[in-house]
Amino acid sequence: MPPRSEPVRTCTGCGKRHPKGEMIRIVADPVTGKVLVDLKGKVPARGAYVCPARGCVEAACKGRLARALKSDPISVGGPEELSGSIASVLKGRILLLLGLAQRGGRVVSGTNIVVREIRRGCNTRWLAIVAEDASDGIAVKLVRRLMTGGVPVHKVLGRAELGAAVGKGLRSVLLVRDAGLAASIEVAIIRYLAVR
Question: What is d(CA 64, CA 69) in angstroms, rounded to the nearest whole number?
Answer without folding.
Answer: 9
